[in-house]
Amino acid sequence: MGAVGIVGAGACAGGGGTDGGAAPVSTSVAAPASTSPASSAPAEVTATVTSTVTASPENTASSPERSAPPPAPSTSSTLSAEATVVAYFDAINSRDYREAWELGGKNLGGEYGAFVDGLAGTERDTVRILGVEGSTVRVELEALQTDGSVKVFEGAYAVRSGVITDADVREVTEPEDGTAPPGEETGDVYYENCDAARDAGAAPLRPGDPGYGDHLDRDSDRTACEPYVPLP
What we know:
It is a single chain. By secondary structure, this protein is of the alpha+beta class. Among the domains are: 81-172, Nuclear Transport Factor 2, Chain: A (Roll), CATH 3.10.450; 174-227, no CATH class. Helix content is 22%, strand content 22%. The protein is built from six helices and six strands, in the order αββααααββββα. A hairpin with a 2-residue loop joins β3 (122-133) and β4. It starts with a helix and ends in a 33-residue tail after the last helix. Mean pLDDT is 72; it is low at 1-39, 49-53, 59-68, 72-76 and 175-186.
């Protein structure tokens, strides 16, 4: 009766692994030490229960090696034509001539040394974008020189894939007195007097404005046909 009880306990211990793929449970029962009927002590029963449990496949399978994460998408993109021209002059103003060279200086003629030497007399460039047509950027440029003078340039830069590939920029020159003959550098506009300029809605006029002329600037203050303010 004692042996039957031990076998039942071993079966219960192994039965818990029925669903988990447990190995069969082996049970050994030792025979009584003495079978003498004269012995008054109950027979000693020794049971050895050996249970082998095999873990379920999902628990024992080695975790797959983590694959390297995909590279982060690039956040940099090719600069627009306008942004490229602005970045080019920003690099020049910060004296980062190597960056300016890579942004297009290398395509504007000459070697790197000559490119840098050509900027030696420039203190600062101020660029104003006049318009963008496809990959062509029209600009007006004021170049402050190291001697304090200012040179004015106008022209266009051709840009491809974030790099200036060509340029057609020329210095704008004005007569020393700030005037221009009729039909030249004035858009073919000429006003005989300030009344005509006012009637056209163009007054006041300043050097470089269409129609500006010395004959309209009587006080030579470089502003023609300004409103007359009587003295108190």
